[in-house]
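Budget justification note: compute hours in this period were largely spent on complex prediction jobs such as the one shown. Inputs:
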Amino acid sequence: MFGLVHLVPGDPVRLALGTRFSQESYDALRERSGLDQPLVEQFFGWFGRALTGDLGVSFRSGETVTSQIAERLPATLTLAFASILVALLIAVPLGTVSALRPRSLVDRVATVISQFGISVPDFWMGIVLILVFAGTLGWLPSGGYVPLTEDPGAWLQRLLMPALVTGVVSGSVITRFVRSSVLEALGADHVRTAQAKGLGTRQVFTWHVLRNALLPLVTVTGVQLAYLLSGVVVVEIVFSWPGLGQLALQAVQARDYPVLQGAILLFALVFLVINLVVDLLYSAIDPRIRR
Amino acid sequence: MTAPVLEVEDLRVRLRTPRGPADVVNGLSYTVGAGETVAVVGESGSGKSVSVLALLGLLPARVATVTGRAVLQGEDLLTMPPQRLRQVRGPGAGMVFQDPMTSLNPVLTIGRQLVEGIRAHGDVSKQAARGRAAELLREVGLPDPERALDRYPHELSGGMRQRVVIAIALSNSPSLLIADEATTALDVTVQAQIIDLVEKLQDEHGTGVIWITHDLGVVAGIADRVLVMYGGRCVEDGTVDDVLERPAHPYTRGLLGSLPDLAAPVGPDGEVPELTAVPGLPPPPTDLPPGCVFWPRCPVRADPRCETEQPPLAVVSRAAAAGPGGATASGAHAGDGAGLPHRAATWCAEEEVPRG
Amino acid sequence: MSIQPTPGPPPYQEPDGERRPETPEEPPGGSPQRESRPPPTLRPARPRWQETLSLLAHNPTAAIASVVLLLIVVVAVFDDTFASEGANEISVTDRLQPPSWEHPFGTDDLGRDILSRVILGASVSLRVGFLAVGFALVVGTLIGLLAGYYGKRVDDVLMRFMDMLFAFPAVLLAIAVLAVRGPGSGNTALAIGIVYTPIFARVTRASVLGVREEVYVRASRSVGASDWRILTRHILPNAAPPIIVQTSISLAFAVLAEAALSFLGLGTQPPNPSWGLMLAEGRGFIELAWWLAFFPGMAIFLTVLCFNLLGDGLRDVLDPRQRTQMAGGSRAAGAAAAAETGGNA
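Corresponding output:
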């Protein structure tokens, strides 16, 4: 494992270095933000403040970075969790069925679908979906975000397409994983022992195949969730989804380093938390790791 | 004695492989009597394991075609509906597999794995099944059985795990126990303990045992009868004494020759008699030779028919079998039932059996 | 027998065995009878790469993917010849023309021929992709080799650093790199390269650890072969298959990442066409002229798909352990493997 300390030093430093290439108009700002001080001091100063929840002030809007992030976080979390839900709903049945009937028609179709899902650019798929469902058919709004608490119907309408796009991509990755995992579990010796005991097919499958096969799914789902939380930048842009990805991109375009730093720190934090949760979850469900 | 527990007749298994159909078992016939132990020996790839997996329908139907008859207590295993076969697995025949490290589910407790087997064959309450499970574990010699129920397989040693596997196989008091290389993965002392255990349980319950192994030392220790397999065929069978003392088939002789004989005299300069191995490899089951399956590796090749014609399993001697061998009862092959014939599938036996 | 690997010297090529061109295998036995009936050998008489190619040719999806990729690469290399229409020529009269004979993919809002721009975009996208993966391949493999071979401190330091990079979500890391270095295709390649370096390091390190303690490596160490020689002659060839597979798959993702970054306006800068950039430009006209965004998207999709299919095909051919796991299926594979084992062991 790597600690938070390992994760953070590179980027603020590198990002701070970046200001050197920027225009003179930033010089005043640099001074104000303490960017003219030695890097090490800068870093420790920033890091110390970050620990107390103070991530600095945005160059652009003058708001605190913390409040900006807090404002964007619900949208990103919503999208990420909705996507992982879509992904699992696709992947578990599809992967299982194709593992049970390897080389059958179902398996081939599933393989083709997941191959397409992995290869398709998510933003392009988003654009095509907008064209079809928002443009031609006019069923759904083309983008935006409404908090659940305000209007659940509108929330769902707007969530549907972006969640589908990211869900299909993640789902394809997970489908392949489920397939090979179930295949492996099917071939395990203990499955034969279970059959030799005279258990029914369903019982063998549920307790000796599926249960074993889905254990590592926790890890993969965790990785995908971490990826979704951060990797949906592009989809957020396509669907005008006011999440962290959009914030980070705007920060890059405006060279708003405090915001970018804060966003990156948050993503790293999210990544660590997810890893931790996965580890905990795993040791709770896999007796081999339990101590 | 009584009717045999298991009667296998002309068992054939063909597997679909990427390299074409493979005839893995080619016309195997044998019987196992109550309380009798039949050892099936042969090299890796001789079709031993496949032949017993086929009996219980444990080969994937998509790739395996099984023909012949295998009558377990009056019912043909190979033609019975899957639902009935499921009921037979367990109470009819229990199976112990080679690798105790992998044949238990790592994420379920030992207790659970025993209980589900017990409850699959009888309307038993969870509590009662648990009690029975603990009893079984005690019977197979697991220390502290009550606590062992809540343990996971990885918390036990290999020998202990194999005891658990045996307990699972015995949990529905099967009339037939199939041990597929059950001691191969264990070290020698544990191996001996397991063999003792199976013998003891066999004596108590009158279970018929098929013991698959490639370890001839184990065979000598446990078997009443021996069946030597090569290329999916039985090349020789008979009582332990007949087969091990007076092997008739060149392959059996080769196998025995490759076993170090500790009783053999050590040469004057401390030289140990050289181990002879059977050179070469068994034929691929996708491409069996037309004649005797052993012909490509046979050092004898006494008869021109060897190359072209498969020798039938013929009686070599009856005399030796009439001896005081323990379980000679299931004389299904011998028409007169006088004793168990010693048979070998070789053309050279006719000329070459000196001891008649 | 059965599902377990056969004990004793396996004449049946264990999956690992196939990866060892270094150990010439003495045919076992050698008795006179063998001549009349040579056992089937799995060891090809041809060199490995030829074997690989021929196996690949027998895998229809991978073969088609390779052909399509080859076409794309040829078109990209000779982009000037194919894209004669002047991809950056603006013609107001030809604005937003739907696909026609004259403009098979239509024209964009400035009257530029989309087909030509897609072709030019191919060379940009592929160049960035190859540069990025090339960087990741060289740096990552080197790090992985050193970490895996020397172990201990070297391993700790290098892999910890790689973990750190790996911990960052790919797109974000790339965005961060571009934020520091500024947009542009060169920097995009560098950013993507940095993102994929840890993956190569990990794959290489795992393979190296797998073979480091093999007998033939220890043997050559014992006869005084230099580290460099051992690394290049013994370890690298054995670590190569997963690296090759990873290269193909990474190319897929590099093309995708380049498109994504350009779409965000951080990658290739206008007026140069890049598929991602074209998508971004076409997005605004999506309801008016669908072809603006559709064709570049298809191009990205097709290229990425082909690299992925090729990667899968290569994995099947080069990494047999994966193959039994992925393709054969359940115990069918086990039983079939048992039968094969039976045939040769």
